[in-house]
Amino acid sequence: MVQLYNLHPFGSQRVVPCKQEPAHFCCGQDVLFVASTAASCRVEVFTVREQGRCEALGSFATLGPVLRMAHSSAGDYLVTIEEKSKATFLRAYMNWRCMSAGSSRVCVRMVGHKMEESYSEALKEQMSVVEMPLSDPPLCISCCPVNGDLLVGCKNKLVVFRLKYCVINQNLTVLDFERSLILHIDNLIPAEVAFCARHIAITTELDVLILKLDLVQQSADRTEQCAHGVNAPEKAVDGGVKDENPSTHPLQLELDEFIICQKPVELLGEESKLCEIPVTLESTELPTEDTKHFQVQYLLFRRFAPDQSPFGFCEETKLHSVQLLPVYQTGIPATAYEETENKRKLLSLFCFFSLPHVGYLYSLGKLVELISTYQYSEKSEQAVLTPQFLHVITSQNLQCFTVRCSAAAARGEDPYIDTTVKACPPVTLDVCTLRMQLFIGPRAICHFKNHIILLTKADTEDITERRKPTRRMLSRKADSIKSRTNSESEPGWNLYIINTVSTIQLYREMVEYSRTYENVKTESCIHLLSEAHLLVRAAIMDPHVLESDEKEDLLRAFRESCAFLGDCYSKFDTKDYHLALPYYRMSGLSMAEVLKRIVSEGDEIQTYERGFIFYLTHSLNEDSNEELSKESGNKILQIFYLADPVQLPDILCSPSMRNICPLTAVKYLQKVEKIMPSVVLTLTKAFLALKMGDLAMYEHEMQSYKETTLACGFIGQPRLLQQRKGGSVTPTEFAVHLKEMQPGLLVAATVALHENSKIELEEADTFFKMLCNSSENTVPQLLVDFWEALLVVSSQEKILQELLLRVTSQYVWRILKKQLPETKPLKTTEDLINSCSHFGLIVPWVSSIMSVGCSSDKDYHEDISRLQSLLCSQSISIASALPVLEPLTEAGSVGLTVRVLCHTRLGQYEEAIDQLLRRCPDAAVFYAQHELKGDNQALWWNKLLPELCKRARLTGNDCPVLISSLKETLSVVAMELELRDFLSLLPEDGTAAFFLPHLLHCSQRKLLT
């Protein structure tokens, strides 16, 4: 469906003062080339100034009548196909600008001809004509706008000429060509070709083929493949007709009496290989280290059928106007054109081609897809595509259509453009006709910058009709038409330069026009504003248009168009209401500014659409630094109370709503509570009561639910406790109050937030440190309480190990520094052992060691017992904790228990026994009784007994503890070993009387068994 609007994209028009009737014309960077009809064999050159003013720059002769011509911006050369004596020639005109300086010297040479030093200096002041011989007559040509390479279409082949820059000397560089590649294409006669960034588009009368030359890595085993390319498979597609020998066909017919038409077919991407058009590559340039090797990639094949009518087939159904349009990444434009050329980077590529009544625009990106179809009101003659518009000429009209290239390119540049942060009108947006401008006999059209060049040729009856008074559609520069006389000798042709209006001017007109649909057709209003937005977006992406003085105007218009679209999606009830958010964000408007645009002054009964509510909800739920005024905040409260009262607690906790009247907010919440009570709403009322200083109301609200319910209520609204500002978490007044009055609730609520992914572990650390006014390196007790509480409920192994290391480190630090916690811990060691599996029961031998330790350790009993309890459990990774525990291992009895516990957890029982015998022999037997069991029981007689005997012998009777421990050990050993094994363990120099009771006990046990 094509939308039709009566806008004015065409401004002034001026007549090009051609001396002869134009046959062909094309545009350069700032000039217009006009080739006259067969009689004169000349090309006139005109420079185009502002507002389309045209001045003759010079002219030069051609070999014969020009059949085709094209200009390359890269290299600034003109290439022509000329005819002489029924033969066609391909010629390139270099350095043609010297003709305007009055020089008439011309150098004609063959392509690749070596420039001699003898006349190199003269090349500066003479035009150079390069003739490029071909084995087959050239049919069509195209210049690559990116690098200036030339593509020539011949029967069954395409020839690529690479543009070369030959350095003659320090002051002179001459352009030349090198025939680099031939594409052999069987059974194909190209009518038109287009060439851009190694992409090739070919059309015949009814077929379109788009190829890409991919660079390949050259290696010895694939040289042959790269040189000859890739042939298409021989598989036939639906509707394809393979060449067959007529004599072998079973149903031979008189083919002259029939018209054979193949079915229409469209093959995209990989499927286009099935088009039965084999392409073979032949490299023709001399191989060097820098030689590039290519292979063919098929992108698109489309075959059309002739239009059918009740009177038979229409012979005029032919494709025309194939073009490849590059779109470049948005960059900083340079002041000089050449600098811009070097800096810009290709972003997207589009291909356009047309039938007489319909045009097709394809995007050639990672996916090849049809993005727009253009239906013409009458038969088209020619079309030209620009980044902003499609201009089409028919038998009596110049039509201007919008295009979707900027929308597709924007998504190519940023695949995530359609989010809550940014948006762009869809590629599938209906195309529209901005203008249908009447002209008499349009025949040809081309475009460059903001100018359209139009050739008209009127029949005799058209000239007579034109002399009659008519209403002029172009009135902005009416004087430009008055130059045409009504004399009898007036020719029937004109070459016009039509100046298109500036992007900003047309944008303003589209915005103004959209207001006529504001209250009638909302979709049309959005459509027009989307067109205006894409118009500006396309201008911003065009490196030729975006100049320094125009840049700010375009960016300002871009932001303004985003604001207008945001207004539409906010005010209108549309299915895409969510787009209000990204468009307002791209506009740069603050919430206060948006409120002024949407909310009517003094209108208490105004209704608000989903888009506006969606925008406000997301904006207020973000951590914005914008603070709304008291009036704006109260207005937002009223809006949500009427539109979505459930969200009021969320809205009230927004950092942007700091300045609201708490009394007004409480009144709204009380009304909502009667209908939809909730714990979050109650907590919000308590929060507001604190802001008002009403402690009675605060106590009443906080006593409405149990503490566990209140802790879970904070999950629904974390911003009651902590708000984000500048990327960091800061505590609220509510959190400060809970810290003083209900620290347990605060810790429980923070644990609930962490377990529900509302706050990260590092954020919680910052939160508690800020809350307790602690320095960066100081850990407040409330944070330790949080870690301990989190150990009780957390089930993530990675989090658990991190927490265990943190609490261990804090216990060690306090014991070493003899630092008591600044506040009383919320749980005792017994509480933790009973509620958390990560805190184990303290084993008896640890208590035995501590009983003979230093009395000063008793002041830090809680931290010591928590640390020992952690090490007695199986949760903490001892290997990871060793660096943290190392400073404590020499600290008296506590250090001994820590060291022995670590040895035991690591399975190093012998080292643990050595430590105990050396530093606390009283606990050695207690340790053995508790730890030396099962597979470790042999250590009783293999390690403990020999060590005790050895140490008792050295100390004698001076250490009764060793003697007592030895007796206990002998009792255990005598119970476990056979008599013979027990005897073998006794020392030879021992006193028999000492061991006799144990020997007797061992022998009696043997007799009993």
UniProtKB/TrEMBL annotation:
Domain BLOC-2 complex member HPS3 C-terminal: 505-1006
GO biological process, one term: pigmentation
Superkingdom of source: Eukaryota
GO cellular component, one term: cytoplasm
BLOC-2 complex member HPS3 N-terminal domain mapped to chain residues: 3-485
Organism lineage string: Eukaryota, Metazoa, Chordata, Craniata, Vertebrata
Name of the protein: HPS3 biosis of lysosomal organelles complex 2 subunit 1
Source organism per UniProt: Serinus canaria (Island canary)
Pfam family, any one: HPS3_C
Annotated Basic and acidic residues bias: 476-487
